[in-house]
Specification:
The complex is a heterotrimer. Chain A is of the alpha+beta class. Chain A has one domain (5-68): SH3 type barrels (Roll). Helices cover 18% and strands 42% of the residues of chain A. Chain A has one helix and five strands. In chain A, 48% of the residues are buried. Chain B has two domains: 20-162, 60s Ribosomal Protein L30, Chain: A (2-Layer Sandwich), CATH 3.30.1330.10; 178-336, Phosphoribosyl-aminoimidazole Synthetase, Chain A, domain 2 (Alpha-Beta Complex), CATH 3.90.650. Chain B is 29% helix and 22% strand. Chain B is built from nine helices and 13 strands. Chain B is globular, with a radius of gyration of 22 Å. By secondary structure, chain C is an alpha/beta fold. The longest helix of chain C is centred in the middle third of the chain and has 16 residues, at 229-244. In chain C, the strands form four sheets. Chain C has a five-stranded parallel beta sheet. Chain C has a four-stranded parallel beta sheet with strand order 4-3-5-6, sandwiched between helices. Chain C has two domains: 1-316, Rossmann fold (3-Layer(aba) Sandwich), CATH 3.40.50; 323-366, no CATH class. The chains are: A alpha+beta, B alpha+beta, C alpha/beta. Chains in contact: A-B, A-C, B-C. The A-C interface holds A 1-6, 8, 22-23, 30, 32-35, 42, 44, 46-49, 51-52, 54-56, 58-59, 61-63, 65-67, 69-70, 73 and C 1-4, 6-7, 9, 11-12, 15-16, 19, 22, 36-38, 63-65, 91, 119-123, 142-143, 145-146, 148-149, 152, 199-202, 204-205, 226-227, 230-231, 234, 237, 253-258, 263, 265-266, 269.
Chain lengths: 73, 349, 380
């Protein structure tokens, strides 16, 4: 499981919801399961809910690690 | 010769609705046909007012096709059931290399359907037909009780003329042949899904619904028999079309994921819903198979046409007794592009 | 797509593949189970196995909640949908799953049952509010990723005082399932699993803590991996290193979304609404203790099992079906006599074929060209 995808929050809306975007496709989702989300943040979206915030620093670390695989051993 | 005046009062298009009298063959039906269909489709053959259209057949071979249109919603970004009906029928003819000439249009109307919507659809069909240079020359109208049709169903037939020497067929693909697509994949299906209430996402994607006979005409003229076949990947998407052809021709197909033209928004919408763009419908695109030598020329001809700007070479035909359609993924690994048994459904897993 | 495309980079994949090939010791064989159906799907869909050396084997585990739903529970859902006055809301994944007698939700819908596909529990709630005369039952399935949304819907329904919204709860628990795989007597006798590729989004909710028990008690390496193919490859590399170095720890590759504690807010909501069942039947695994959830007494008015008096009748799989062995990694899809003959995605016989990420379905849909294959069946 489970089909979940990182999307960017563009606008906070009432009722603990937000507008999010993925490459120009927008959707309104629930923020009830997360805290402290601001426009510009990325969240993991699953069945209409944000499950978690994506940590950009940790994401960068992972990418660096993966790219490092390209460097000679 | 004009038909005698049938109406005393104009049809109330703004507020009126289809009722059972419009299908019963009487004056109400004649008025509906005249005010909405004749008005929108306007041509000499239709204006004769007969139950059939009689025309000369130029010497040569004719192509004929038939289609049913039941799309929901009826109006979607980039088109409606009417324009879709014209484009779809024209395209089925165009894939044989034919020049489309005449269409018929049969309407099953649901009791209660707003006349304003019907007029909008009819006008859209008329415009699509004029733009495509075809005439809607005969038709039929029936009305069914409320609940027995989804607003309106349209059934069409089309005839066209196939030039001498053109032999395009799904069984002509041979190992080594090049496979091309005329543009971006998945636009229509995503546009439709975005208008469906229960999926609730917003996008700028519009349907790619378009008449392709100008493009196919140029392709046939440039490549002659080096062009093996063309087909438009509608329901079931590119995957269905490639599998059909692999089976019809008794070959295998190998394509490259990186070569597939897909708009970022379409890719994103598919990610959100758990869909694969390969299985999503297109209504203004074609797949073409050509000899390897003619591929470059064919691509160049396609690029020169407005409907082929994003054309791309996506793969080749191989010998394969299993008739597999295989794809090298953008990741470098291999996978099959299978033939779906039913409609692709969004998933959570 | 940001945070997605970067983790699908083919160039990095080839470089990582080389590193994995170097790290894998030629005299060793490595068997890693990837538990999450999403991983199964990613591996098949990107053709990841083509990039790994032959001595690394990825075994597809029972992490697909559609696959492990027993036939009897599917029958319950179909029967619910067929009752007049009931609107059954379901995720699309379940529409084609066959129950007994070849029935399914999509067939029931064709025969007139009010079955509605929804993307989210929020849609089901909305339907209940908009159609007060319908009794709206949400068919709840899924692991810990999908449970919080069901919890939120029930809390909201309670707040709104809805009298026509219910959940038919089939939520299951990941740690219990892994326990059933490694802890059973059969496990000791069967193909040893050296390590686990831990689920991505389950872990965003439950954190990395729950996996320590397996690492320690059963001496298995665990690496929580993100959803994208590069994440999976990186996790494989980390697992290979653990095995080489004789370690059996819990490592986290998906650091951009998974923390040690997970999402406490979501966990609290779930704990408020659900409690653990003593036992639950899993298709292919049999009865597994403490592996599934039911609604707490406080939410009894929303519990479809209580309100509609559901008594599940267990139904058996085809005796030739090898799903149980396949789910535990003992057999491969091609080892099953039914695979590709009686059992295809159109006519699934067992759990591994019913959902697009069951190992048989994934293999058939994406990978069967690798077998010395029988001729592909003509699709109609």
């Amino acid at each position: 499981m489970c089909l979940a995808i990182p999307v960017q929050v563009t606008e906070l809306l009432e009722g603990d919801t937000a507008r999010v975007t993925l490459d120009g496709v927008t959707k309104i989702i629930s923020l009830a399961l997360v805290e402290d989300v601001r426009p510009g943040d990325y969240v993991i979206l699953h069945v209409g809910y944000a499950l978690n915030k994506l940590d950009p620093e940790e994401a960068a670390k992972t990418l660096a690690l993966l790219a490092d695989a390209g460097a000679p051993a | 010769m004009t038909a005698p005046r049938l109406r005393s009062r104009k049809l109330d298009v703004k507020n009126g609705r289809v009722d059972l009298s419009h299908g019963s063959g009487g004056r109400a039906m004649a008025q509906l046909i005249a005010d909405i269909f004749h008005d929108s489709f306007a041509n000499d053959l239709l204006a004769q007012g007969n139950d059939q259209a009689v025309f000369d057949i130029p010497a040569g071979r004719m192509a004929m096709t038939t289609d049913g249109y039941v799309v929901s919603p009826l109006f979607f970004p980039g088109g409606d059931i009417g324009s879709l009906a014209v484009h779809g029928t024209v395209n089925d003819l165009a894939m044989s290399g034919a020049k489309p000439l005449y269409l018929s249009a049969s309407f099953i109307l649901e009791e209660g359907f707003p006349l304003a919507d019907l007029q909008r659809i009819a006008r859209s069909m008329g415009a699509a037909a004029r733009e495509a240079g075809v005439k809607i020359v005969t038709g039929d109208t029936k009305v069914v009780e409320r609940g027995k049709a989804d607003g309106v169903f349209i059934s069409t037939a089309g005839v066209g003329l196939v030039p001498d020497g053109v032999e395009l067929s799904g069984d002509r693909a041979r190992p080594g042949d090049a496979i091309l697509v005329s543009g971006t994949l998945g636009d229509h299906g995503v546009a439709i899904m975005s208008s469906r209430e229960n999926l609730q996402f917003e996008t700028q994607i519009v349907s790619d619904s378009a008449a392709l006979h100008g493009l196919t005409g140029a392709m046939v003229a440039a490549c002659g028999n080096d062009l093996r076949l063309m087909r438009d990947p509608t329901r079931g998407g590119l995957a269905a079309t490639l599998n059909e052809i692999a089976h019809q021709s008794g070959v295998g197909i190998r394509i490259e994921e990186d070569a597939l033209p897909i708009r970022p928004e379409v890719a994103a919408a598919c990610e959100l819903l758990g869909l694969d763009p390969l299985f999503v419908a297109n209504e203004g695109k074609l797949v073409a198979f050509s000899s390897p030598e003619a591929a470059e020329k064919l691509l160049s001809v396609m690029h020169s046409h407005p409907l082929g700007r994003d054309a791309a070479l996506i793969g080749h035909v191989v010998a394969d007794e299993n008739h597999f359609v295989q794809m090298t993924t953008s990741f470098g690994g291999g996978r099959i592009v299978d033939w779906l048994s039913g409609e692709q459904l969004p998933r959570i897993c | 797509m940001k945070y997605v495309d970067e983790y699908r980079d083919g160039r990095l994949a080839r470089a990582l593949a080389k590193k994995i090939a170097l790290a894998a010791q030629p005299d060793k064989s490595y068997r890693f189970m990837e538990f999450c159906g999403g991983h199964t799907h990613a591996i098949a869909r990107y053709g990841l196995e083509d990039l790994l050396p032959a001595n690394i084997r990825l075994i597809h585990g029972p992490g697909c909640p559609v696959c492990v739903l027993p036939i009897g529970r599917m029958d319950d859902a179909i029967k619910l949908a067929q009752r007049p006055g009931i609107t059954l809301c379901t995720y699309a994944d379940l529409m084609r799953v066959p129950g007994s007698d070849g029935q399914s939700l999509i067939k029931a819908k064709a025969a007139g049952a009010d079955v509605r596909m929804v993307y989210s529990t929020l849609d089901a709630l909305r339907i209940a509010q908009e159609e007060p005369r319908r009794q709206v039952v949400f068919f709840a399935i899924g692991f810990e990723t999908t449970t919080p949304p069901t919890a939120m819907a029930l809390i909201e329904a309670q707040k709104l005082g809805l009298k026509n919204f219910f959940a038919f709860c089939n939520h299951v628990l990941t740690p219990a399932a892994i326990q059933a795989l490694v802890g059973s007597p059969e496990a000791a006798a069967s193909v040893p699993i050296d390590g686990f590729v831990g689920p991505a989004h389950v872990s965003t909710v439950i954190g990395t803590k729950p996996y320590h028990a397996f690492a320690e008690n059963y001496r298995k390496a665990v690496v929580i991996a993100g959803f994208e193919p590069l994440d999976v490859m990186q996790a494989v590399l980390m697992l290979v290193r653990q095995i080489n170095e004789g370690r059996h720890e819990v490592e986290n590759e998906y650091i951009r979304a998974v923390t040690v504690d997970g999402n406490r807010k979501a966990q609290d909501f779930v704990a408020r609404v659900f409690e653990v069942r003593d036992s639950f039947e899993w298709r292919g695994l049999g009865q597994v203790p403490f592996s599934a959830l039911k609604l707490r007494e406080e939410f009894a008015a929303f519990d479809a099992e209580k309100v509609f008096d559901i008594h599940t009748v267990a139904a058996k799989d085809n005796p030739a079906c090898e799903c149980g062995e396949i789910l535990r990694g003992v057999k491969k899809p091609v080892d099953c006599k039914l695979f590709g003959t009686l059992c295809t995605p159109e006519t699934p016989m067992g759990s591994c074929m019913v959902s697009s990420e069951g190992s048989c379905a994934a293999h058939w849909t994406y990978g069967r060209f690798r077998d010395a294959a029988p001729k592909q069946r003509q699709a109609s």
